[in-house]
From TrEMBL:
Region (Disordered): 162-182
Name of the protein this chain belongs to: Uncharacterized protein
Organism domain of life: Bacteria
Source species of the chain: Marinilabilia salmonicolor
Amino acid sequence: MVEAEPIQILQITEIYFSLRKVFDNFTLNLLLHFAMTLKELYTNTTWPSVREELFSLYPDQKKKETGYQKVYEQMPSIGPQKSTTEILFTFIEEKEPEYDSYIHLSGIETNSDSKESHSLELTSWEEWMGMSINETTLNDFSPPNILAHCLLEMTLTGFDPETRKRTEDDMVKRSMEISKGS
């Protein structure tokens, strides 16, 4: 067996890592070229990685960890519904020092010329799973970070379909009452 000189091993190692970086970037760019849905993004995460992001972003939500974990673990069984909405993250930098800057999650319609965004709070989980993720969002945020933000938004009205339905019906009822002036 021929022994390699230390310099050769170093060069081979550098070449390996350079090629790996090229292929990793190529793979990422290839994935970004094709729309990635939330369901597909889910497969690139683990509960511990999402949990870490979720509670570093929203430490006050730690008391609801069981609910978030339950929904996360249900995600593979949620059938994605075809959607024309794309998930978009926008960084909002607050000018006033008493307010924190934050990430605003919203939806934009891909089949419309209008690029106005809208709330996704009342969107079904099936539609969430079928939504594509905006290319800029995929470039700027990690899969666990994206999923942590989406998980929070998906569960604003409850951690199960029954609770969500009750809460959403109450919201609609109150909205109707307000619009009637009651």
